[in-house]
Amino acid sequence: QVQLAESGGGSVPAGGSLRLSCAVSGRALRSYGAGWFRQSPGKEREFVAAVSADFQTNYARSLKGRFTVSRDNAKNTVFLQMNNLIPEDTAEYLCALDNAGSYARFANRYQTWGQGTQVTVSS
Q1: Which of 93, 115, 36 has its CA nearest to residue 70?
Q2: C-alpha 50: how far from its chain's center?
Q3: Is 22 helix (H, G, I), strand (E, B) or coil?
Q4: C-alpha span between 92 and 101 (Å, rounded)
Q5: pLDDT in tens, the chain (123 residues)
Q6: What pLDDT was estimated at residue 64?
Q7: How far lies 115's CA from each of 5, 7, 9, 22, 38, in Å?
Q8: Are 34 and 53 in contact (CB under 8 A)?
Q9: What is the pLDDT of residue 116?
Q10: Pair 37, 53: CB distance under 8 Å
Q11: Distance separating alpha carbons of residues 111 and 123, to the nearest angstrom
């Protein structure tokens, strides 16, 4: 059974950076697509970025340029580098795996989810 564990969240001032990690256990990461989503209280889950099994990437249009998704199959880990953070980036960030290996924008394409890591950006 595959499990995900996010880490790297925290509180930063506006303009700061964070690097989130999503450690995969139970299965090898290499055949999965991986996505990052975020959710704030009272808001719907929002697509952030995704990377396919063959390393193609996909970003939310509003975030491209500040966020970078990557994967290290040898470490069974997916990363999300977030730069120039703004208060609107405050949310819980979740990673997810797609058995089909794609980099979909839609949450219902992902079968396995982590518990999330909180990111808080102060103004």
Answers
A1: 36
A2: 7
A3: strand
A4: 24
A5: 999 999 999 999 999 999 999 999 999 999 999 999 999 989 999 999 999 999 999 999 988 789 999 999 999 999 999 999 999 999 999 999 999 999 999 999 999 999 999 999 999
A6: 76
A7: 7, 10, 12, 10, 11
A8: no
A9: 97
A10: no
A11: 35
CA–CA separation, 94 vs 114, rounded Å?
Answer: 6
Residue ranges with strand state E in 1-122: 3-7, 10-13, 18-25, 33-39, 46-51, 57-59, 67-72, 77-82, 91-98, 112-113, 117-122
Residue type, 9: G
- The helix (run of H) or strand (run of E) holding residue 96 is strand 91-98
Q: Which two tokens stand for residue 86?
A: 């703004």
Are the C-beta atoms of 5 and 64 separated by less than 8 Å?
A: no
pLDDT at 8: 98
Strand partners, 49: 36, 59
Question: Looking at the DSSP assignment, which residues form a beta bridge with residue 78?
Answer: 22, 71
Total number of residues shown for the chain:
123
Give the pair of three-digit tokens for residue 33. 């697509």
